[in-house]
């Protein structure tokens, strides 16, 4: 997948400008940057879910098909088998009235995949018993795992993960990131992982782009960005990661 020249303005305010990056099958790319840099907005634009009043420009290239990022209908058609999302607040993204198993079955049927709900649960480290649970019966970490199972059940080409570990403790964060990366690599799914925490992604994403105020201020191999941060925003993130 390649994103070319993504721009987004709302009411004359430029929120994203000339954002470009590419990612291959089974690769992992981090989108880093401080709060308000535009990380989540990039994902929303790719999914055709930018705010109603937003003017979005640029193109998405996938499977040799060029889709204008202004074309919400075409982007909606890519959701599921093309691009799937693991949101920041997984618990809130689940249907409170239906069991985990029912939600998994629905996604499998909707996207006509060969996924089996039981297998999907096992793959994210949850026992079969979780199929009978309602979202309010899940911990934060378990809800994130269910959200990952739902996203992978679509058998997407690209998985977009928006700070999926934000609300978890340190141990659960590390486990979830590891699970994300292993599952995506095993299924040859491209992973775009949004985070403001460089330390959290350094072991799993070989490449990154750094956003600040809607623009890409640095990009390349994470090890190189760590060793020689090219500009102040990356340097501040590296310093924070070193402090621990
Ligand atoms: N619906 C909207 N209307 C107007 N501005 C918006 C809207 N949604 C987001 N923005 C603005 O877009 C900018 C980028 O927001 P975004 O949520 O993408 O940041 P982020 O990098 O993901 O931050 P965080 O790490 O805090 O989640 C912010 O200035 C935000 O105020």
UniProtKB/TrEMBL annotation:
One Gene Ontology term, aspect cellular component: plasma membrane
Mode of membrane association: Peripheral membrane protein
Short name of any one Pfam family annotated for the protein: ABC_tran
Domain ABC transporter: from-to ranges: 1-238
Keyword ATP-binding: yes
Superkingdom per UniProt: Bacteria
Listed InterPro entries: AAA+_ATPase, ABC_Ni/Peptide_Import, ABC_transporter-like_ATP-bd, ABC_transporter-like_CS, P-loop_NTPase
Gene Ontology molecular functions: ATP binding; ATP hydrolysis activity
Subcellular location: Cell inner membrane
Keyword Transport: yes
PANTHER family: ATPASE AAA-TYPE CORE DOMAIN-CONTAINING PROTEIN, OLIGOPEPTIDE TRANSPORT ATP-BINDING PROTEIN APPD
Name of the protein in its database record: ATP-binding cassette domain-containing protein
Organism, scientific name: Nannocystis pusilla
């Amino acid at each position: 997948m390649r994103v070319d020249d993504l721009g987004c303005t709302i009411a004359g305010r430029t929120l994203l400008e000339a954002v470009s990056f590419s990612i291959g099958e089974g690769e992992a790319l981090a989108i880093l940057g401080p709060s308000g840099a535009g990380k989540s907005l990039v994902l929303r634009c790719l999914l055709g879910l930018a705010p109603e009043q937003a003017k979005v420009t640029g193109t998405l290239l996938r499977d040799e098909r060029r889709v204008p990022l202004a074309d919400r209908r075409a982007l909606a058609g890519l959701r599921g088998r093309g691009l799937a999302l693991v949101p920041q607040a997984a618990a809130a993204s689940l249907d409170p009235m239906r069991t985990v198993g029912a939600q998994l079955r629905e996604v499998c049927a909707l996207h006509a995949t060969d996924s089996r709900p039981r297998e999907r649960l096992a793959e994210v480290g949850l026992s079969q018993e979780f199929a009978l649970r309602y979202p309010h019966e899940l911990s934060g970490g378990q809800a994130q795992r269910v959200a990952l199972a739902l996203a992978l059940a679509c058998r997407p080409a690209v998985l977009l993960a928006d700070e999926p570990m934000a609300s978890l403790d340190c141990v659960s964060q590390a486990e979830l990131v590891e699970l994300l990366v292993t599952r995506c690599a095993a299924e040859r799914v491209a992973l775009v992982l949004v985070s403001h925490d460089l330390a959290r992604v350094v072991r799993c994403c070989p490449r990154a782009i750094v956003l600040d105020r809607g623009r890409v201020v640095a990009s390349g191999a994470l090890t190189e960005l760590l060793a020689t941060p090219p500009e102040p925003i990356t340097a501040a993130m590296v310093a924070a990661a070193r402090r621990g």
